[in-house]
Amino acid sequence: MALDSKVPKGPIKDKWTDYKNHINLVNPANKRHIDVIVVGTGLAGGSASATLAELGYNVKAFAYQDSPRRAHSIAAQGGINAAKNYQGDGDSTYRLFYDTVKGGDYRSREANVYRLAEVSANIIDQCVAQGVPFARDYGGLLDNRSFGGVLVSRTFYAKGQTGQQLLLGAYSAMNRQIARGKIEMFNRHEMLDVVIVDGKARGIIARNLVTGEIERHSAHAVVIASGGYGNVYFLSTNAMGSNVTAGWKIHKKGAYFANPCYTQIHPTCIPRSGDYQSKLTLMSESLRNDGRIWVPNNLEDVKAIKEGTKKPTDLTEDQRDYFLERRYPAFGNLVPRDVASRAAKERCDAGYGVNATGEAVYLDFAASFERYGKEQAKIHNIENPSAAKIKELGQEIVKAKYGNLFQMYEKIIDQNPYETPMMIYPAVHYTMGGVWVDYNLMTTIPGCYAIGEANFSDHGANRLGASALMQGLADGYFVLPYTIGDYLADDIRTGKIATDTPEFDAAEKDVTERIEFFINNKGTHSVDYYHKKLGKIMWDKCGMSRSAEGLNEAIEEISALRKDFWQNVNVPGTATEYNEQLAKAGRVADFLELGELFAKDALEREESAGGHFREEHQTEDGEAKRLKEFQFVSAWEYKGEPKDAILHKEPLEYENIEVKERSYK
User: Which catalytic residues are annotated (predicted)?
Assistant: First the structure.
């Protein structure tokens, strides 16, 4: 199958408008005869479900959580980007487009990214209308802050809980359609296969996670909005239930999987505390607006801090290395995530890590307390304020901006970040790879779409902060509702899709046999035993930096681990009850296959680009070295074993941006 991105012709600023002017539409009276399945109800799935139902389609929405409010989108903290130029600092649609392509190391599809930037402003208006409580400035206008990799303030936010507030907006829109009967909501259901009829996606097989019942659901189109696969590493910032299963099932039925090795390492996470930890916690990148990142200049001070004979606050300015400000003066602490993560790892690898494991740097707000405090003292006409008063006033401002994040940090670490610097370290976060989609967001399976983090299209080799929420809502509210109509226009006379067909029989049989295997296989190891082993291989050899030697080892080790899993995994309980271990077994089985393809993709891509850092390909000063011959999307076709996957390449053409050395210095 030849890859056709279906990008419209013409100038980039006109592509989306001209496309919408010429696509097929579905008559409002005909939409009520068309069914759409949406798998996942986070920001992408929730906004898509609400909008499609509002348009008149019959939507079946599936969530493995007990409510769409539990989707992992709720965990996003720092904000959402939009090119509205409220600050008057020179922002524009083009600049957001440029920053996103450059931030992704010139490995994203130009037309998709421009469309994302173009519709971004509409998202904010939509969410304000829904009642999302964005922060406002003194005059009542929506406030903005900066994120890494940009020179403007374009990030709209609601304290440190932006994802939660945006999700509640989408959820309220969904609830309105559920009440009208246009959305049929299936909570505690997991999609376990897609059903293909005459070459088109026509339904799914789902399992009721409470009763264990296997169900058949048909539709004229299937939309996958199930998020990313960061939990292939076991330890990540993702919710523990986040998984790749929906995306992997459609991959095995013909949907190409693109750039699986593109994983984002977030620089601002709470460091791990030991080998028995089950997940990691994110500290919003927005903290880098006001926090300065540093380590001690001298190894003697590092040793003293670890031994407890010195506190970080004892070190004077000249005893500190603000390494991001030193190495990247133009962007300082607001360099992109991949750059900040590698810089922190480099300092820790050199022995300057400040916690017991040697895997932590400081994020310090003392300078901000002083800066804001002096400003507040002037505003309130306080003459000759004491240092303590300045600090108090400054802390109140920081508390108003980030208070819930500081509270969360203190509860986890048991240290007061107002009095001592936070400790942070990079961790696996978002995944830029995902199911390959064309300009319409359709996969290589006709009638099967992938939106949000589940697809690959917008972020290249590194996602800029605050762009995940932007992409999820752009896809769901403003892109898919147009593009899916173009496809569904041919289905207005199709009628209901029957579920008593050989295709549904075969898919249900495959799902049932797999479940029966897990229940009946009396192995010796738990599911988590295998997941932790996989995660260690992935982190050690496919993590922040990679080498050909390590990747070859990873492929062999994951293959052997997968073989052992199918022989020796043990799943307690039965298939006819709520059985979280059974659900987890299926997800880890998919992670084991994905992990091997991940390593294969990383081995194939012999360059450093964004979050994908190959030790063999770096500049003299340790920066990522991109190579011209890898200016393509890696789209993998399933052929049974991951080692047999076939690589298809989508060339990436840049007509509106000059591809040059990516520098933040």
Answer: 337
Q: Are residues 482 and 337 in the same domain?
A: no
Catalytic residue list: 337
Give the model confidence (pLDDT) of 195-221 as tens digits: 999 999 999 999 999 999 999 999 999
DSSP secondary structure letters along 535-557 = HHHHHHHHSSSB-HHHHHHHHHH
User: What DSSP line would sit under 424-442, residue for residue?
Assistant: EEEEEEEE--EE---TTSB
Number of H helices, E strands in the chain: 18, 19
State the amino acid at position 389 in one-letter form: K
Verify that 458 and 593 share a domain, yes or no. Answer: no
Structure tokens at 107: 């490995």
Q: What is the DSSP letter of 72?
A: G
Q: Judge if 465 and 338 occupy the same domain.
A: no
Q: Are residues 409 and 446 both part of a single domain?
A: no
Statement: residue 2 has pLDDT above 80: no
What's the rounded Cα separation, in Å, for the pair 434 and 104?
15
The sign of the CA dihedral 565, 567, 571, 572 is negative
Look up tokens 């006379």; give the residue.
493
Burial of 528-545, coded b for 16+ CB within 10 Å and e otherwise, reads ebbbbbbbbbbbebbbbb
The residues facing 393 across adjacent strands are none
Range of the domain at 248: 12-262+432-491
Q: Which residues contact 452 (CB under 8 A, 6 or more apart)?
A: 40, 42, 43, 44, 45, 225, 227, 471, 472, 475, 476
> Is 350 a member of any domain?
yes
pTM confidence score: 0.97
Q: What's the CA gap between 392 and 597, in Å, rounded? A: 52
What's the pLDDT tens digit per position in 156-208? 999 889 999 999 999 999 999 999 999 999 999 999 999 999 999 999 999 99
CATH number of the domain enclosing 580: 1.20.58.100
535 lies in the same domain as 443: no
Q: Do 295 and 388 fall within a single domain?
A: yes
| DSSP codes joined into one string, 99-141 | HHHHHTTT-S-HHHHHHHHHHHHHHHHHHHHHT----B-TTSS
76 in the same domain as 183: yes
Distance from the Cα of residue 609 to its chain's centroid: 18
